[in-house]
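Query structure, 149 tokens:
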């Protein structure tokens, strides 16, 4: 991914600029992400919170994800665009929705999670590793290693 990367909401009220490579990126097929995206999964990358400069103010809604952990979803209050995720799983990281990037083609997921919640009509990525649910604490380092390649 070229640094800095940039993105925005649909109406332009919120802009952001990222100054660090993503720590990891994935496709999440959990029911919460399906509801939030209105589609079959959420494409999101996680970056160090301190590396993201946000102009404008996102509104956050807290939900309990399929994992049982709290997820705080950031969106534009004006146009409703989903932009950010703050997940209790990784408190030092900020999730950025790939669809909000100005250059979404640079998004590079390394794994897909919650595949047990994928639908029969969902075309799972054919070459990415799959996890039935969220990775465990023991499995998480292998996801970080996959993304570092």
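Result returned for the query:
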């Amino acid at each position: 991914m070229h640094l800095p990367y940039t993105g925005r909401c649909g109406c332009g009220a919120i802009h952001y600029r990222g100054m660090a490579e993503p720590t990891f990126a994935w496709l999440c097929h959990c029911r919460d992400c399906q509801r939030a995206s209105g589609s079959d999964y959420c494409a999101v990358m996680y970056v160090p919170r301190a590396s993201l400069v946000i102009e404008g103010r996102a509104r956050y809604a807290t939900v309990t994800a399929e994992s049982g952990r709290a997820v705080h979803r950031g969106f534009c209050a004006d146009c409703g665009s989903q932009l950010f995720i703050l997940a209790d799983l990784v408190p030092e990281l900020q999730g950025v929705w790939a669809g909000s990037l100005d250059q979404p083609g640079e998004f590079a997921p390394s794994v897909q999670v919650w595949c047990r919640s994928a639908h029969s009509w969902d075309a799972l990525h054919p070459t990415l590793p799959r996890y039935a649910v969220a990775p465990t604490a023991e499995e998480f380092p292998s996801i970080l290693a996959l993304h570092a390649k």
